[in-house]
Design goal:
Strand order of the largest sheet: 3-4-5-6-7-8-9
Number of domains: 1
Largest sheet: 7 strands, parallel
Shape: globular
Radius of gyration: 19 Å
CATH architecture: Alpha-Beta Barrel
Number of strands: 9
CATH topology: TIM Barrel
Structural class: alpha/beta
Strand content: 5-15%
Length: about 325
């Protein structure tokens, strides 16, 4: 698989979000299955794996997903890039010491992931702590060699700019897909200009863009985010059908799947984009990774964009959600 850079961190041009092995898509698979699926992703060219300290069943507890990722990748640690995320509140900060409050989270993640350094460390969501203080602490962690680079998730341009001015960012992770394009206006151009990678989560819109979800699809009742994703309400699934039809038209033309077209589109559009599709299904994971084989020509991309821009999107989540 081709490589891309998140600032100076080289990764496969398609990464893997590992959340679904712990949270968000109903019944989770066994640990053994999850570990094998992650190892298989590596065998299929993936060198970029994304987790978070909070990814646990029903978001109750800390570290379930990091433990799985650590076990899966321990034998190839020097050949992969591991990203994880933390959240911090001001109540955790003692005597204004933001650095040590963050370091406590970091050391916990390092232990669970079985690593001596985190490649990419994100602030998962902004809180009541000034972003400038977070950025200063991250700069210190980089200098100490505990992290290679840092990033922000679920953020708008004003927060990104403030952080970048203190400690240069390696990546921004926001929602981005054919039906969630807010980041195109200011954020992605800013990232390109400042050599910051852009890492889309939910690049297949929680499965909508795979073409497999219909108005009769029943999601699991427990711990399944698809029950509240705006585009997956029945009326919006129906409303977005022209977009799915467009994707399927190009999928047939390129002998690819709709999910692969959705990923190939964003890889073609921006040189700094590295999507991290997630799934708890081994076959779907490999299908997503193989999107790197789908090359849209300039004319095909232009045709696709022209038709896409004529279509209305029904349901909107937004990158700060």
């Amino acid at each position: 698989m081709n490589k891309r850079k998140l600032k100076d961190i080289e990764v496969s041009e398609i990464g893997m979000g590992t959340m679904a092995f712990s949270h968000g898509y109903g019944q989770i698979p066994s640990e053994e299955y999850s570990i094998e699926a992650i190892k298989n992703a590596y065998k299929n060219g993936c060198t970029f794996f994304d987790t978070a300290e909070v990814y646990s069943p029903n978001l109750s507890g800390i570290g379930h997903n990091e433990l799985i990722v650590g076990k899966a990748l321990k034998d190839v640690r020097d050949k992969v890039v591991i990203a994880t995320k933390f959240f911090i509140k001001s109540s955790e900060v003692i005597n204004g010491d933001v650095y040590n409050a963050i370091k406590k989270h970091l050391l916990g993640s390092m232990e669970r992931l079985q690593v001596k350094m985190i490649d990419l460390y994100y602030l998962h969501r902004i809180s009541d702590i000034k972003i400038e203080e977070i950025a200063k602490a991250m700069g210190k962690l980089i200098k100490e060699g505990l992290i290679r680079g840092w990033g922000l998730s679920h953020v708008d341009i004003d927060v990104i700019t403030k952080a970048q001015n203190i400690t240069p960012l390696s990546a921004i992770q926001n929602i981005y897909s054919l039906v969630e394009r807010d980041s195109e206006e200011k954020i992605i151009p800013y990232c390109i200009k400042n050599n910051i990678g852009f890492v889309p989560f939910s690049p297949i819109a929680s499965g909508l863009l795979s073409g497999k979800i219909t108005t009769s699809t029943q999601f699991e009742k427990n711990d399944d985010v698809r029950n509240w994703v705006p585009q997956l309400k029945k009326e919006n699934i129906e409303g977005n059908k022209p977009i799915i039809d467009l994707i399927q038209k190009f999928a047939q033309k390129k002998q690819a799947t709709p999910a692969q077209i959705s990923l190939a589109w964003m890889i073609k559009k921006y040189p700094n984009v590295v999507p991290i599709p997630g799934s708890k299904n081994k076959e779907r994971i490999v299908e997503n990774l193989n999107a790197y084989k789908v090359n849209l020509s300039d004319d095909e991309f232009k045709e696709f964009e022209t038709e896409l821009n004529k279509l209305k999107v029904y349901g909107h989540r937004g990158f700060a959600f």
